[in-house]
Structure formats: structure tokens, C-alpha cells
Amino acid sequence: MQAKKRYLILLSAGLCLLLLYFGGVQVPATSRSRHDRSRSGYRSDQPWPHFSDPLQPFNPWDQTDTVEYNLHISPRQKRDVNSSVYKGKKCRMESCFDLSLCQRNGFKVYVYPQQKGEKISESYLNILSTIESSRLYTSDPGQACLFVLGLDTLDRDQLSPQYVHNLKTKVQSLPLWNNGRNHLIFNLYSGTWPDYTEDLGFDIGQAMLAKASISTENFRPNFDVSIPLFSKDHPRTGGDRGFLKYNIIPPFRKYMLVFKGKRYLTGIGSDTRNALYHVHNAEDVVLLTTCKHGKDWQKHKDARCDRDNTEYDKYDYKEMLHNSTFCLVPRGRRLGSFRFLEALQAACVPVMLSNGWELPFSEVIDWNTAAVIGDERLLLQIPSTVRSIHQDKILSLRQQTQLLWEAYFSSVEKIVLTTLEIIQDRVLQHMSRSSPMWNSHPGGLFALPQYSSHLGDFPFYYAGLGVRPQPKFTAVIHAVTPLVSQSQPILKLLVAVAKSQYCAQIIVLWNCDKPLPSKHRWPATSVPVVVIEGENKVMSSRFQPYETIQTDAVLSLDEDTVLSTTEVDFAFTVWQSFPERIVGYPARSHFWDSNKERWGYTSKWTNDYSMVLTGAAIYHRYYHYLYTHFLPSSLKNMVDQLANCEDILMNFLVSAVSRLPPIKVTQKKQYKETMMGQSSRASRWADPDHFAQRQTCMNKFASWFGGMPLVHSQMRLDPVLFKDQVSILRKKYREIERL
């Protein structure tokens, strides 16, 4: 029987196969192919693409409502479109940005004029004024690559008094709107109670977003820019420095982990903060919340509210912030939080607890080096996680918070300029910054990739790379008086500098109204002497990045400076150990005049200094490029009109970059008197207006930098054995002591 069953099963299987083969319905190959192609958007009238053809750009997402497009889109894609917050969900630089506008005049930004009667917040005014005072600004829309609205788009919460109504109509009526192409929209708050979506309430078209609290779901990589949430009191320029004054080893503070903030009883963002009490131990983990906020909080308060409010009032927030190793940054109603910037400034390592938040400037900043990225679902594991972090790592994280705070977040100006520089790097990819430039001192804003994309060309990266500057310098002598005698100081100076073993060449910058002297008037030297006419005969021309300068070091000299060859050699030797600073001889200082409530300038010989004048100083040639291309034309024009203060401005710039004071080296006693005795500068130093102008310059420069970047120092570097009671023959720089 079992054998018969096996035969019947085999026979039945064979009959089924025959029926399928001969009697089954056959699907034509052409029909199947047509179906597959229609799903992928293929049309029979389109030619098969050749690999040599350029890639076609994505369809602009605002054109996806057309009948032709809908014929070739799946139902799932249609649902995604309809549920998307932004219609331009798939916009990228390649598809929604016209790069040709940037090829004509470079990366220039135009700001629409503000419309009369339109309300505008102070924060948005700060953003617009920052752009208008930057080197990227243009007042001509025909030269612009990027456009920024004059309409306030920061607060799109309909319940906010700052909410601008009818924004859709107003934006669409702008003559240059072009469906948002090449436009940048700034936004801090979107959506409203209870769900707080990321909808801005108007169609942004193909515009880019610089948005706070943006989710990874709605963030368009390489197109949008995630910015931090900042308060209306955030300073426009400058800003306070980080609170880390010195490193504590081991790097532990009174508290391990802290938080103090609102607890939401209902609605979005309530889950995480409601669960914080499970982790709070009132010892080294202090997580405090209060539900005492809003008009009707008592209607919704739960059994924990009174106890939480009592505990909340026991602690001072600033004291906690400054005395904690880690600071919890949980999401609020929106993904971002003011606690983020507060933790960065306080050198309290942020512990991020906001799933799906695209962290600020994530395109360029490596947040793993400055923060701990947590998961809201694993809240109970946070304390054990932060306790397991080694103290070396904690110290590194803390130091990085200070770098990022001071480089990108301490003011509205830095936030806005960082946003613009990120976009510029996308546009000019061949001259974009590398990750180390963004994530190491002094930050991407001071490392201009137009100068070089190689780290070894910037003085502030030498120490990290383990390299030393070139062993030669180029002397630049600033000449403003005609050459009438062979005994003039400039000729003696030229001979002394040329004898230096480190001198590669000498450039005489001729800023005199008289014609250039003939070649035979200059003394014969062992190094090349190049005479260049200054551009427009202005003071700022002495800091032009001349292509003739091929060495890393520049020895800047006034025509009446009196230096010996030994002094030049010693100064250059010192500079090689401090290539990111100004090293030189004549020192000056600044002070705060409390009576006049302004900065003062002094040339008195005191126990400290904050400037080394460029009449006899050595610095890196990159600062010529930075002076010319980074500083605004308003400051350089002021210097040129006054024919004064260019040395002060260079000191401001170098100290702002390095965060360090200049270095004064030993000089002969007669230096000050000799300087005052020379004819060309004697009139300048004796002129009372000259000194008053320098006082004015100090305050004008401090205003633009947003604070005083100069740093005082009491250090002077002398040669070893200087003034020691040993034989003069044993001293290397013995001539300095003899003078």
C-alpha cells in the first residue's frame, strides 16, 4: 500500500507541472517590462542614457504636483510627499541651488531691505546686521550668490507675539524669490502647542534652512544647516569666553551630572523630563524639575509637583552648572534647548538626551569629541555611562567644549558667520576647509581655505603637526620719506638686516610720494633687495600678502628703526618657538579707563604690555592674508585715512586668533631714545593728535571685535647668560649686552 501511495503522489506532482507548463497563463515579457519601467519613472519616448552624459538633476520637489510627474510615482512616494513638512524634502545643492550665480562674483550674500511697518525682533536684527557688516555682504543683488530675507522668520509659533502674519503672501511677492532658489531662511521656533511640528507656516520652496531644533528626519544633508537655539539676550558680537580658566587634574567636580529645568505634565516632550526623578540621588546626580510654569499649571499638577518644586528651589542653577562634570541636555517641547549652549560655555560636558536632533553644525563639527550622545530610551543607564568615562577623556571633552564655544557659539555673529562659511565651503568645494580646521584651534572662521587647504601652511597648526617654520625670514621695510642722503637710517637698517644669517630677502615698500630711487642708491647686499611701490600709498599696504614673500616669517620694520644684526637674529630665533604670535621689540599696553568708561592706550614703560608694535616685529605671513581678506574695509579705511593705528589693528587680529599675548624680547637701553630722535617719526610721536587717534582706534577696534582681544603679559625673553657674571666670550648674543 505504501508503494502505491508513493506512485500516486509522484503522478499527481507530474500532472501539476504539465498543467502549469502548457495550460498556465503566460505574462508577456513586454508587458512585464513596461510595468517595471513605469514604476521607476521610465518613459518609452526617453532615450537610454549614455554613461558619458552628465547626470540629470533631481526633479525640484515643488514640481511633483504636476500630472506628468504623478503618472510615474508610486502611491507610497505620494504619501511621503503629502506627509512631508517641507515640499522641498529632497532638495540638495545639486538640484535646488544655482551654482552659476556664485561663479561670477564669488560667494556674496544679499539681504533684502526691511519693509516699512513690518515688526522685526532684536535677534533677527542682529542676524541681518552681522551679515551686512561681514566681508561676504553685497548691496547689489546682481552680484549675490545667496539671498537672506528682510522679513523676520525666526519665530513661527502662532501664539508668539513675534509671529509675522501673512508671511506666505509677502514672501511670494518678493521679486527675487524665484521659488526660494539660492535663499537662506533663519528659524529658531516652529510649530505651536500641542504638537510643535517643524512647519514654518509658509512654503519655503527650494530655500535652504538655517534652523534650530531640526530633526534628522526633516534635515536635508548638505543643504540645510542646523543652528543652536539661542536666547534674545545672546550677545551680537564678541560674547563671554568659556568658564574654564585652568585645567583641574583629575577633572572631577562636586557633581557628576546635573540638570535644572521645566517639567511638562502633558504634551510632547514630557516623557523624558517626567522620568528624570528616577535617576536623581541628591548627591552627585542632581536632576531637578519643576511643573510650576504656565498660567494653569495647578490644573494639571500631579502628586510629585509639590515635592519637586521644593527640591527645585534648594539649588542655585549657576552654582550647579559651574560645579558639575556633566550636564544633562534633555529635549523640551522642541528638540533643542538653551541648556546646550549654557553647558558648553560652563565647560560642563553636555549629555545629549534628545533622540532625532540634528546637532548644531553637525556637517563640520565632530560632536563625539565634545559631548556624550545619549538615548532617551536608556535614561536609567546614563549615570553608569558617564561614571565609566576615563578622566583623560573627560579632560579632552571639557577642553573641546571651550574651543567650540569660543569659535562658533559665543555670539550671534559667530553663529551666523559659521552658517555662511559652511555654505560657502559647499559652493567652493575645491577651497573648502578640512575637518581638522573646523575642530581644532582657532576654528574654521580664522582658517581661510582661500589661503591654503594644507594645515602645514598655518602657524597655529605647527605644534599639533610637529613641524617647524622655515629657517629664513623676509624683511619688509616701510619707507615713507624720500631718499636724499646716504646716511639715512633706512640704509643703515638695510645693511644690518642683510647681514643676518636668517635673512632670505629684503622688500622695501615704497609708500613715499616721490619717485622710486635708482638702483645704485641702494647699498650692495648679499641678499636680494626688491623695491615695491605701495598700493595707493596707504598704511594698510604694508600688510598686503605680496607674492614676493616666500618665507613663513615676515620681519616688519619702519624705515627709522635702529636694530643691530644680533638683535634681528635673536628675535627670529625666539619667533621660531612661537610662530603663531608677534615677537618683537617696541611694546605698548592697553587699560580700561573707568572714569571715561573706555579703553585707553599707553606707551609708558611699565611692568606689563599687550602689544608689540610692527615697527620692529616678526610674525607669520598668513597674518598679512588675514589682515587683507578677513578684516572689514571699514577698519582698514579708518587706518588709511588716519595714516595711523595699523600696528594696533594687527595686534588685535593676532591676539584674537591666538588668544595669547605677543612676546617682547630684550633690547638695548638706548632703543627708545634713539627711536624718538629720528626725524620721520619724531613729528608723529610729538603730535598730540597722533596719540588721541590711537585712543580712538583702540575703542573702534574693540567694538568691531566684540570685546578686547588683547592679552597682558609680564614676560620678556632674554638670551641665556644675559647680564650674568660670566665672561662675555661665553655669551652667544654678546653684542646686545654691549649696546
TrEMBL record:
Exostosin GT47 domain segment(s): 104-389
Keyword Oxidoreductase: no
Subcellular localization(s) per the UniProt record: Endoplasmic reticulum membrane
Domain Glycosyl transferase span(s) in chain numbering: 473-722
Region named Disordered: 31-51
Annotated keywords: Disulfide bond, Endoplasmic reticulum, Glycoprotein, Glycosyltransferase, Manganese, Membrane, Metal-binding, Signal-anchor, Transferase, Transmembrane, Transmembrane helix
Pathway: Protein modification; protein glycosylation
Reactions the enzyme catalyzes: 3-O-{[(1->4)-beta-D-GlcA-(1->4)-alpha-D-GlcNAc](n)-(1->4)-beta-D-GlcA-(1->3)-beta-D-Gal-(1->3)-beta-D-Gal-(1->4)-beta-D-Xyl}-L-seryl-[protein] + UDP-N-acetyl-alpha-D-glucosamine = 3-O-{alpha-D-GlcNAc-[(1->4)-beta-D-GlcA-(1->4)-alpha-D-GlcNAc](n)-(1->4)-beta-D-GlcA-(1->3)-beta-D-Gal-(1->3)-beta-D-Gal-(1->4)-beta-D-Xyl}-L-seryl-[protein] + UDP + H(+); 3-O-{alpha-D-GlcNAc-[(1->4)-beta-D-GlcA-(1->4)-alpha-D-GlcNAc](n)-(1->4)-beta-D-GlcA-(1->3)-beta-D-Gal-(1->3)-beta-D-Gal-(1->4)-beta-D-Xyl}-L-seryl-[protein] + UDP-alpha-D-glucuronate = 3-O-{[(1->4)-beta-D-GlcA-(1->4)-alpha-D-GlcNAc](n+1)-(1->4)-beta-D-GlcA-(1->3)-beta-D-Gal-(1->3)-beta-D-Gal-(1->4)-beta-D-Xyl}-L-seryl-[protein] + UDP + H(+)
Topological category with respect to the lipid bilayer: Single-pass type II membrane protein
GO molecular function, one term: N-acetylglucosaminyl-proteoglycan 4-beta-glucuronosyltransferase activity
The keyword S-adenosyl-L-methionine is annotated on this UniProt entry: no
Domain of life: Eukaryota
One GO cellular component term: Golgi apparatus
Family per record: Belongs to the glycosyltransferase 47 family.
Protein name in the entry: Exostosin-1b
Native source species: Clupea harengus (Atlantic herring)
